[in-house]
Design goal:
By secondary structure, this protein is an alpha/beta fold. The chain has one domain (2-166): YqgF/RNase H-like domain (Nucleotidyltransferase, domain 5), CATH 3.30.420. The chain is 41% helix and 24% strand. It has 6 helices and 6 strands, in the order E-H-E-E-E-H-E-H-E-H-H-H. It has helices at 6-9, 52-66, 85-97, 122-133, 140-147, 149-166, and strands at residues 2-5, 18-24, 28-34, 41-48, 68-75, 113-118. The protein has a 6-stranded mixed sheet, with helices on both faces. Helix 4 (122-133) crosses helix 6 (149-166). The mean pLDDT is 86.
């Protein structure tokens, strides 16, 4: 597996394939998908977490269905740039992913590409967007979280930020 900060492994990214943005939470996994040219991120779905093997089955289904070539995980550093328990949760999840190459559709002789992208303020920006634009009932933010909208939109924000870094607009 190729795992690291996006800025360090950008040159090794799989070209002409979709990337899957991941906003990993304790109870849910928000997902977003790029187009093949890796210029546009679209919210995809939110997985309710249960057992790790089931999480891998769900991710594997998406990887196969959309021919995903790599992952961009939100890296939840603190505002001062330091890491904490949330970063450790992401690191542990990625470490455990290495035990499921077949479920993730990794072909023999190929390496899974996993980038970490600073996700500071991604959820805050999604919360502001939801409050101002989305009508999911009286408690918009809570309703958006319960419906999975917040998580997949956060994954979209994370992935789009990474794509903008990878393919700067001219």
């Amino acid at each position: 597996m190729i795992i690291g900060n996006l800025k360090d492994i950008a040159a090794q990214r799989p070209k002409n394939s979709r990337l899957l943005g991941v906003d990993l939470g304790a109870k849910t996994i928000g997902l977003a998908l790029s187009n093949e040219s890796q210029t546009l991120a679209t919210p995809l779905e939110t997985i309710k977490r249960t057992k790790f093997a089931r999480d891998m089955e769900a991710l594997g289904r998406i990887v196969r269905e959309f021919e995903v070539g790599g992952f961009v995980f939100g890296w939840p550093v603190h505002m001062d740039g330091s890491t904490g328990p949330a970063c450790e949760r992401v690191r542990s999840f990625i470490d455990e992913m290495q035990n499921y190459p077949q479920e993730l559709g990794t072909k023999p002789g190929t390496e899974l590409w996993i980038a970490l992208w600073d996700e500071r303020l991604s959820t805050a920006s999604v919360d502001r967007f939801v409050e101002s634009r989305v009508d999911i009932g009286k408690k918009s933010r809570r309703g958006a979280k319960a419906s999975g909208l917040t998580d997949k939109l956060a994954a979209q924000v994370i992935l789009q930020g990474a794509l903008d870094y990878l393919v700067p607009s001219t």
